[in-house]
Amino acid sequence: MSVNSPDGGRVLVVEDDDAVRMAVDRGLGVHGFEVSSVPDAESAIAIVARRRPDVMIVDIGLPGMSGVELCTRLRGLDVDTPILILSARDQVGDRVAGLQAGADDYVVKPFSLDELAARVHALLRRSKPSAGVTTVLSAGPLWIDLDRRVAKVGDARLELSRREFDLLAVFAANPGIVLSRIRLLELVWGYDFDVDTNVVDVFVGYVRRKLDAAGAHQLIETVRGIGFVLRLP
């Protein structure tokens, strides 16, 4: 099924439940998105190979190849399209598995179509490339080229996902400033509404491990009860 509208970005919905798929199609269409939908992962891969959507919404419990496996496959093919996972599973371990596979967001069923549309808008805002002259950030051992999306610790290049890069760039642009989880959600994910802040802790953990591997130990500190801060040596 496909719903067309000139106002929003292109969204590919991968959902095997016909009722859920049709509801998401119609709901996002009302919000101005151009929506296409398929019931399985293989069909999604075929569509992405022809024309990449701006955002993908992927059910975690797909037949054959699961939603998590689809995320892993797409990231292995260097597809950087933002992916939002839909799931009936609300455990932290399930959320972490989806994020580790390369998903950018995770929504638990049942969900509000208005909230889903808001999250898609947030993903679109964060995925828009920066314009103008190349901007470079430097903070202690970090060197970040925002336009080329390259981050280094000294001469060592960091292999970061889209969201990990955005998170590290926010820290590098605000050295010494304590950033709350809510503020990081606003700056990195583009959320201006109440959502689960656990995603921030998960991604800070990913970034810390990659910084540690590059020799930049304890660069991002936890400020108990508040958030996180990038401390310069």
Please, could you describe this protein's structure?
- Strand 2, helix 1 (about 20-30) and strand 3 (about 35-40) form a beta-alpha-beta unit.
- A 6-stranded mixed beta sheet has the order 1-3-2-4-5-6, sandwiched between helices. A 4-stranded antiparallel beta sheet has the order 7-8-9-10, with helices on one face. A 3-stranded antiparallel beta sheet has the order 11-13-12.
- It is about 40% helix and about 20% strand.
- The protein has about 230 residues and is an alpha/beta fold.
Summarize the structure.
By secondary structure, this protein is an alpha/beta fold. Helices cover 40% and strands 21% of the residues.
Listing every helix as H and every strand as E from the N terminus to the C terminus, the arrangement reads EEHEHEHEHEHEEEEHEHHEE
Radius of gyration: 18 Å
* Tally of DSSP β-strands: 13
Mean of pLDDT: 86
Query: Beta-strand percentage?
Result: 15-25%
Lateral strand order in the biggest sheet: 1-3-2-4-5-6
Main attributes of the structure:
233 residues; 40% helix; globular
Task: Give the helices and strands, then pairings.
Elements: E1 2-3, E2 10-14, H1 18-30, E3 34-38, H2 41-50, E4 55-59, H3 67-76, E5 83-87, H4 92-100, E6 105-108, H5 113-127, E7 136-139, E8 142-145, E9 150-153, E10 156-157, H6 162-173, E11 179-180, H7 181-189, H8 198-213, E12 220-223, E13 227-230
Parallel strand pairs: 2-3, 2-4, 4-5, 5-6
Antiparallel strand pairs: 1-3, 7-8, 8-9, 9-10, 11-13, 12-13
Helix pairs in contact: 1-5, 4-8, 6-7, 6-8
